[in-house]
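Sorry, I am new here, but would you mind making up a protein's amino acid sequence and the tokens describing how it folds?
***
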Amino acid sequence: MSAIVYEHVGKSYPTGKGQSFQALSDVSLTVPDGEIFGVIGSSGAGKSTLLRMVNGLELPTEGHVNVLGQEPASLKGRELRLLRRQIGMIFQHYNLLSSKTIAENVAIPLVLSHTPKDEIARKVSQMLELVGLEDKHNVYPSQLSGGQRQRVGIARALVTNPKILLCDEATSALDPLTTVQILKLLQRINHEYGITIMLITHQMSVIAKACNYVAVVEHGRLIEQGPVGRVFAHPVQPLTRKFVNTVVPNTLNEDLRNRIDQGDEGTVVQFSYTDDGAKTLLADIRKAYDGNVSLLYANEVPLRNVTVGKIVLGFSGGSGGSSALSGRIGELVRNDPKLEAEVLHD
């Protein structure tokens, strides 16, 4: 089941004199129900526009956006309000009212929907306990740290029991330690309540720590998407590779790169894998190859639900030459769907 579906979505803004700016172009993607889905791109890529279409704050000029079986662009008045009650949203700069206490800030969506006072009190207490701020009812935003303010924002977004939570650069204003804490809280909320979370970010480390799926947006176009493990292990587009490289370094040091380019390390192959894809790789290679094998580079990074890694090996002196080696490596890759190989030097 899908919580959010974008079908050939485009968005343009008039800039005057008959000109327009194309913020999104032909974007199609599906956010599965109950998952954490990340959208990453550079500043101005169209991420926020994409996110704000979910609750109808932005309307597509082409295509369709379906949310929980409804199309926000076609709803008005009460119907749109009812859909928005099922969609919570948290922001980069928290958007808290400085003149109201923490409890009063969390209560705002319930007050606006004319919820009875005793129910408001109960739900606010429940949400503040969930985010670890049960002792902060009567303090003001100025008395809290950035991480605590974001927890208030999360509590406010959850107080209406939404089915979808939108996160607009929710951790970009936080320090690394606080970012990890907020991401763990979002994972807990997703796990315990089954809420679909769609978050946008310009930090691939956020995708790595929190998400099950990722979409990469560049200049308003969707250029790559898929499960986080697959995209991290086998990025296709140049921008995706740059993002992944910030988390899973794929840069060999200059001295090693020069030796490889000059042929000093023989035939060099880079193996990319997920989870236990390389568990028996070295043993299998020793059985299949009778020459010398050198380990030139290795790196492994745990993501949220999968581990990705790279191993670079140098081969020399084997019988049958490079064609025989290629056949043996091809057989290993065919027998293990979690393993891929790329020849860096032949």
Observations:
- The mean pLDDT is 90.
- The two ends are 46 Å apart (CA to CA).
